[in-house]
Amino acid sequence: MKAGSQAVMHVDHKTWRNEHATWHDDVRAWEKEAEIAVADLDRAKGAIARQAELLRTHAAAIRLYEQRFAVHEHALAEFEGGLPAEALRMELDSAHEAEQAKQDELRLTHEQIKKQQHTLMAHCNLLLKTLAATAETAVPGRAKS
Fold first, then answer.
1. How far is CA 58 from each of CA 52, 95, 109, 119, 137, rounded to the nearest angstrom?
2. Residue range 47-69: mean pLDDT, rounded
3. If both were cysteines, with which of 70, 88, 140, 144 could 84 make a disulfide (CB 3.0 to 4.6 Å apart)?
4. Distance (Å, rounded) from C-alpha 98 to C-alpha 69?
5. Domain ranges in the chain?
6. Distance CA 65, CA 100 (A)
7. CA 54 vs CA 11, 15, 21, 96, 113: distances in Å
8. What is the pTM of this model?
9. Confidence grade of residue 28 (pLDDT, cut at 50, 70, 90)
10. How many angstroms separate the CA atoms of 104 and 109, rounded?
11. For residues 92 and 75, is the Cβ–Cβ distance under 8 A?
């Protein structure tokens, strides 16, 4: 053993202990972040479930509107077939205005849901790709599962 090499070893060991302490601090912080992320993912799962319910509700609203629209279309066809007169025409005009307003409302709602859906799915896909890439990355000194 060279003279002074013990002192160098002691310095190395002290440096390594400090480095290990820093690593332990990092790991504790990362574990806390992971706990928070799990809770956040539970909230994200809830948000995705609420989005799915919103989609079901929107689809039902579209179906209901289609039924109302069909009734209006049928009345319009009867009017064009020469059945009742001016009173029905005014009723059809009024009904058509209401249907136009409903169509506009559904169109706006659909566009809002579409944007929300695209944003939510883009973030989910990015998260999944990140998770997949992280899982594929080998940690030095650890065998792949």
1. 10, 22, 8, 18, 41
2. 91
3. 88
4. 10
5. 9-134
6. 11
7. 63, 57, 49, 27, 8
8. 0.60
9. very high
10. 9
11. yes
